[in-house]
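Action item from last week, closing it out:
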Amino acid sequence: MKPVYRSSVACAACRYKHHRCDGQKPACSRCIASARECIYPLSRRRGKQRERQARLASPVMDSESSIRPALQAAPNATDTVSTCCNESINPILLDLYYEFFHAAHPCIIPRVYLDKHLTEDALRLLASVICYIGSLFSESISDELQKNVEVALMEIRTGSRTVTGFDVQAMLLYSIAVYWCNEAEHGTALLDEAIQLGLGLGMNRKEFAVLHGQNSPVLEESWRRTWWLFYVTDAHIAGSTHTFPFRTSNIDITVDLPCEEQEYHSGNIPPAKSIEDYDNREFFADDELLFSSYAELIGLTRGIEHALLPGSTADAQLYKSMCANADTSVRAWHALLPTSKRRLICSDGSVDEVMFKALFIMHTYTVEIHRPLSTLAYSPIEAVSRCAPLAPSEHLQCSDKAASELHTVKCLSAVENLDHLLTLPTNLNAHSPFLICMIANVTIAHLSACRYILQGEKLVTSREKIRLTMGTLKRLSEHWILGKRTYREIGIIAREILSLTARSATVPANTNFPQPDEPLMNFDSSEIPFDLNFDFCAPSDDQFSNLMETIQASS
């Protein structure tokens, strides 16, 4: 009998129809014979496929039917947009978007409602953007999809058609994807443009959701979420580029807060809570006034924004005041979290993605704010990373040793807590790409601790924790080009710091901190050959092995 060979991969169409796929690329034999597009999604074991299928199969709530008037009321798109977007709608790419991108950026209407209206004019640009982002998580990224989006955006800019809230949603999501596809300036410009369009429509006002929701609680919730995603994304870019205050800091926002994710996806939308409700939450018991994970993320971001409003400064007293204010805001926020939010685990056993990101932000900002006042020295090689902040002014160095050590303890505690988050059973590929810069900056601080602070077994343990953060960066870089660049940059920094031979347990007294206005290095990391399989911790293995032998000999 001739042996039967099975392919280890199958295209999306063959999987869907339960056909045996020969796994040929770029297209399998069945797809070629049927003249259909052949797409090989990445492994679905990293997602929750059964849960997603159950959600898609669930009955549509009554509120879905009320979305239709809102969509039909929108002005028709031009023939060009209609043609390109109709061709770009691919259910497999929509699946990938909702599986890998939506949870961390949850503003558009849930999939069960979106499916009913994909061919309607109001959603065509949004559908095209969704498909483009979905293609980033597939093995068949389509340049044509991006061209379709750019054509539609040009029509908006030239006034060829009226801008709708769905167009603003599309531009917001597209700006995130463009930013992390190594076009940071273009992505930032798109975000600025989208914010201005949103302001022009009044999306920052509470009334917008009601006026444009067409009596659909789901659509009203989507509009609320859209402006808050603007705000959070703006904060992410400010954090990634270390530019404060935010673009949206001086904008008057009256939009109500979002509900819980399960309420949104089920269509059972409760009455919305206001910012004023949230600002007075400390006077109510948990069972009296509960806020969603999204609302808690917004609350944390607002607290950090207010603390950092003065912006970058070399004034030691002002910086210490900012640091103390940030500590107060962050600690108060965390202390008021309900127990269920601090646990991060949902009732179905999954990890709350929005709260995961909120806690990630909390620990990242703790490191970034306290490190300039700590003993975690800065190295010139850190300038290689686009995510890394400029080295602080020498005026910020603490003369009080006890105070400096306290800031160091706070940094290392935050590093430890962030490492714990990375060990949770999450789908790494579904995290927001903005976590990339957060991980990069915390890793750099951790490397400084390994170089100057940690000793003995703590140093050995930290080696594995650095490998954990590097591994996470590697996974996130599978889909985001800027993530690949960041992974390479942190690897260069790690090799430089960990391979130094003259180790010291403390920071040298004469450590010179480069000034913020000085160019640290003229270095382009893109010129370095890139190997995702390189072990950046390996150069220091001999040092750690020798250290372990010393520890064992002395015990």
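Closing note: The chain has three domains: 1-39, 89-314, 343-500.
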